[in-house]
């Protein structure tokens, strides 16, 4: 006779991964409680409101929307009935160091012509050749490496298929693969940016990350009217409809275990305890194994995670703008003059990790009346890459004046690069890596947990099924990685590992 399937599930953390896993597990018949230490849900998909301006403080676009649609379709009413999403006609405006401006279309079929028009004849053909290789990488990798639990068996299986190995080219970096096809340095710079989607250095990140631009351009860039924070709200509503619950302001101090090492619940900071047959941790793996679980298996896992390279972090400026430029696109990237120097600074090459002197600047400026108090105003999210908060060995983002001085530099750089809003900012709020660490309990504010630097990075990322029986990991620091679609896929993997409840 088989053992009874679990019914009591506690999810630690109400980020998107935790909420998505909770929804799927509730739909499978489990009794699910989500505990969130913060007063609000969303985790890194945060929302900040000030004086009628509403800011997303995490992701500002949705890619691979079919993953979110499948989640809602599998657990009740379809996404279209609970949350509208809109495809952007211009995925992003890029300004290159030579002053060239490219409006990258949201329709992949229109991209080659746009590249030829902005960068010169032949550039579209170069990018199309690269995307063809990226599509083949996607075809080889998406099922075993993004949609399934990963392990040594997957590595062995891939290594036996010589054609697949040649396609993925595990010995090659993303930068190296790009230079095979892209002979315009601006196209190389465009590709390099996709390494930052996993908090990585394109000179060290594996060529397999070419699947990222393919997926984004294949399925387009999308926005949620009212802000992407509404995704977390919709997930919570779906969970409650299925009988689950979310408790905010409930900090978990320990994931408790039985004498045989299997989890049996969680202990909260207020001294209370909640029993569970399964615990799903939507928290950074270093925190989970280093602080929440106190078993030999967890200590060994903590040592493995400690050997990985933390992902980059970021400094965010939330700007309430009066009279924003009328032609400002929803998304814009203003590239640095020296992208390699930026990665050197963030990852500590030629010295300690340090703020970037002249960083690339990313701006999300949604034309959305739902996020501003009045017409003629804008709620801008401005982000630059930054090293994690590490006072001992790198950058102390709590040092007096550092975040403010860096923010001033960012606004000056925007002005230099053609978008001057310095005299239009009604107020600004800064979110530094140190702030992110405190808000999300993420060491150093590393946005994606560990980086994808190195050919073995995917296999070093913590698995969804932990070595502690009954404990599962979900979210950006676990397999398959960070970013909304991958976090949603991690939730699907975890639900599949736990399986349905028997009544």
TrEMBL record:
Q: Which InterPro entries match?
A: Amino_oxidase (IPR002937), Carotenoid/retinoid_OxRdtase (IPR014105), FAD/NAD-bd_sf (IPR036188)
Q: In which pathway does it act?
A: Carotenoid biosynthesis
Organism of derivation: Nocardioides zeae
Write the protein's name. Phytoene desaturase
Q: What is the lineage of its organism?
A: Bacteria, Bacillati, Actinomycetota, Actinomycetes, Propionibacteriales
What Gene Ontology molecular function terms does this protein carry?
Answer: oxidoreductase activity
Tell me which UniProt keywords the record has, alphabetically: Carotenoid biosynthesis, Oxidoreductase
Q: Which domain of life is it from?
A: Bacteria
Q: Which residues form a coiled coil?
A: none
Q: Does the keyword Oxidoreductase apply?
A: yes
One Pfam family linked to the record: Amino_oxidase
Family per record: Belongs to the carotenoid/retinoid oxidoreductase family.
A single Gene Ontology biological process assigned to it is: carotenoid biosynthetic process
Report the Gene3D superfamilies cross-referenced here.
Answer: FAD/NAD(P)-binding domain
User: Which parts of the sequence belong to the Amine oxidase domain?
Assistant: 17-497
């Amino acid at each position: 006779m088989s053992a009874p399937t679990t019914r009591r599930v506690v999810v630690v953390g109400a980020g998107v991964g935790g909420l998505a896993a909770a929804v799927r597990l509730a739909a499978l018949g489990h009794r699910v409680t989500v505990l969130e230490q913060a007063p609000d849900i969303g985790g890194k998909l945060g929302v900040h409101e000030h004086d009628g301006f509403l800011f997303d403080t995490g992701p500002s676009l949705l890619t691979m929307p079919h993953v979110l649609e499948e989640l809602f379709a599998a657990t009740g009413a379809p996404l279209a009935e609970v949350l509208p999403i809109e495809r952007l006609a211009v995925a992003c405006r890029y300004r290159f160091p030579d002053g060239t401006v490219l409006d990258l279309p949201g329709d992949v079929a229109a991209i080659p012509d746009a590249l030829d028009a902005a960068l010169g004849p032949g550039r579209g053909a170069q990018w199309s050749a690269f995307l063809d290789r990226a599509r083949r990488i996607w075809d080889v990798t998406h099922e075993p490496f993004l949609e399934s639990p990963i392990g040594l068996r997957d590595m062995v299986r891939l290594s036996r298929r010589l054609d697949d190995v040649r396609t993925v080219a595990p010995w090659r970096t993303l930068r190296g693969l790009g230079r095979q096809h892209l002979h315009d340095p601006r196209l190389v710079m465009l590709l390099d940016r996709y390494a930052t989607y996993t908090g990585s250095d394109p000179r060290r990140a594996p060529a397999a990350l070419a699947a990222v631009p393919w997926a984004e351009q294949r399925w387009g860039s999308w926005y949620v009217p009212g802000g992407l924070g509404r995704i977390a709200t919709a997930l919570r509503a779906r969970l409650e409809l299925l009988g689950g619950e979310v408790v905010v302001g409930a900090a978990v101090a320990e994931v408790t275990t039985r004498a045989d090492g299997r989890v049996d619940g969680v202990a909260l900071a207020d001294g209370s305890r909640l029993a569970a047959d399964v615990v799903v941790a939507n928290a950074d793996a270093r925190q989970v194994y280093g602080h929440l679980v106190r078993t030999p298996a967890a200590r060994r896992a903590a040592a493995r995670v400690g050997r990985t390279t933390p992902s980059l972090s970021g400094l965010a400026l939330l700007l309430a703008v009066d009279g924003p430029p009328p032609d400002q696109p929803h998304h814009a990237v203003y590239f640095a003059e020296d992208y390699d120097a930026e990665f050197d600074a963030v990852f500590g090459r030629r010295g300690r990790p340090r703020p970037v002197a002249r960083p690339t600047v990313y701006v999300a400026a949604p034309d959305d009346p739902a996020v501003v108090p009045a017409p003629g105003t804008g709620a801008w999210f401005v982000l630059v890459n930054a090293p994690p908060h590490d006072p001992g060995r790198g950058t102390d983002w709590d040092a007096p004046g550092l975040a403010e001085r860096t923010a001033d530099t960012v606004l000056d750089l925007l002005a230099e690069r053609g978008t001057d809003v310095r005299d239009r900012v009604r107020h600004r709020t800064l979110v530094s890596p140190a702030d992110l660490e405190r808000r999300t309990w993420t060491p150093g504010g590393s946005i994606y947990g560990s980086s994808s630097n190195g050919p073995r990075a995917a296999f070093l990322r913590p698995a969804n099924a932990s070595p502690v029986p009954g404990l599962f990991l979900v979210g950006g620091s676990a397999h398959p990685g960070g970013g909304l679609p991958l976090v949603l896929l991690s939730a699907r993997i975890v639900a599949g590992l736990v399986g349905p409840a028997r009544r």
